[in-house]
């Protein structure tokens, strides 16, 4: 069983188009899949689940779609927070939230404060997030520490850099829906040795059975982390 699963939730727009609806309709339908994924991850005993909700590149989408996404994000925070807190889920929004309006930032802060001491599933929602930004903000902080004489250049190592990333735990399994085969600037540092699972299923159709299929396939893989296969050692 992986400890940390990350999901690139792709296909909302295409799903809406297949239904003869506008793209925001697909995002609203995708919220149900988010709820299913979170509940399933908690039941399976996963330690962390990170969902790619809104990338830093998504600002280039049509204004009405971005606006609909922001409104949906706020409604979801208001609607889901009680359930998340009741089920001991610790919610953390990762990404550069400075671009969000003050109302949304306040909602994010309140939800994080409410759930910060929960000891169940660690749920990370990547919003206005980019993997390059994540690495950059970690390195910028450490560079300031070196400049102030708090750290020396030789003090910098992977463990220290990791401490200042948005998520400190490495990802074991990345799932991408929607039939695309790329990482789209998602958790570039954390997925260095992650197993990858791709499915053609569009995100609104993602359910517990597909999630379980991904976990079952993960269980069959041998994670070598650059070392020789166990079978090669004994043959």
The helix/strand order is: EHHEHEHEHHEEHH
The global form is globular
* Individual helix count: 8
Total tally of structural domains: 1
* The CATH topology: Undecaprenyl pyrophosphate synthetase
What percentage of the residues does DSSP assign to strands (E)? 5-15%
Level-2 CATH architecture: 3-Layer(aba) Sandwich
End-to-end span in angstroms? 27 Å
| Number of DSSP E strands | 6
Unreliable stretches covering 5 or more consecutive residues: none
- Record the strand order, biggest sheet: 3-4-2-1-5-6
Question: What radius of gyration results from the CA coordinates?
Answer: 19 Å
Helix-strand makeup class: alpha/beta
Mean pLDDT: 93
Main beta sheet = 6 strands, parallel
CATH top-level class:
Alpha Beta
Question: Helix proportion of residues, in percent?
Answer: 40-55%
What does this structure look like?
This protein is of the alpha/beta class and 235 residues long. The protein has one domain: Decaprenyl diphosphate synthase-like (Undecaprenyl pyrophosphate synthetase, 3-Layer(aba) Sandwich). The chain is 46% helix and 14% strand. The protein contains 8 helices and 6 strands. It has helices at residues 12-18, 23-44, 63-86, 102-115, 131-147, 158-163, 208-220, 230-234, and strands at 4-8, 48-55, 90-94, 122-129, 173-176, 195-198. A 6-stranded parallel beta sheet has the order 3-4-2-1-5-6, with helices on both faces. It starts with a strand and ends with a helix. The model has no long low-confidence stretch (mean pLDDT 93).
């Amino acid at each position: 069983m992986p400890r940390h699963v990350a999901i690139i939730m792709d296909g909302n727009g295409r799903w809406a188009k297949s239904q003869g609806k506008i793209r925001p309709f697909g995002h609203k339908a995708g919220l149900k899949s988010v709820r299913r994924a979170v509940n399933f991850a908690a039941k399976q005993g996963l330690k962390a689940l990170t969902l790619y909700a809104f990338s830093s590149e998504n600002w280039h989408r049509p204004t009405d779609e971005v606006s609909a996404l922001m409104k949906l994000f706020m409604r979801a925070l208001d609607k889901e927070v009680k359930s998340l807190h009741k089920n001991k889920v610790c919610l953390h929004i990762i990404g550069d939230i400075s671009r969000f309006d003050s109302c949304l930032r306040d909602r994010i802060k309140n939800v994080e404060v409410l759930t910060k001491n929960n000891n169940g599933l660690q749920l990370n929602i990547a919003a206005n997030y980019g993997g390059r930004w994540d690495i950059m903000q970690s390195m910028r902080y450490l560079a300031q520490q070196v400049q102030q004489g708090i750290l020396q250049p030789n003090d910098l190592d992977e463990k220290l850099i990791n401490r200042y990333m948005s998520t400190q735990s490495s990802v074991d399994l990345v799932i991408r829906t929607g039939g695309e085969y790329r990482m789209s600037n998602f958790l570039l540092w954390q997925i260095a040795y992650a197993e990858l699972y791709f499915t053609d299923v569009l995100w609104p159709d993602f359910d517990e059975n597909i999630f379980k299929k991904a976990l079952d396939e993960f269980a069959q893989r041998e994670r070598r982390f650059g070392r020789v296969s166990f079978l090669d050692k004994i043959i």
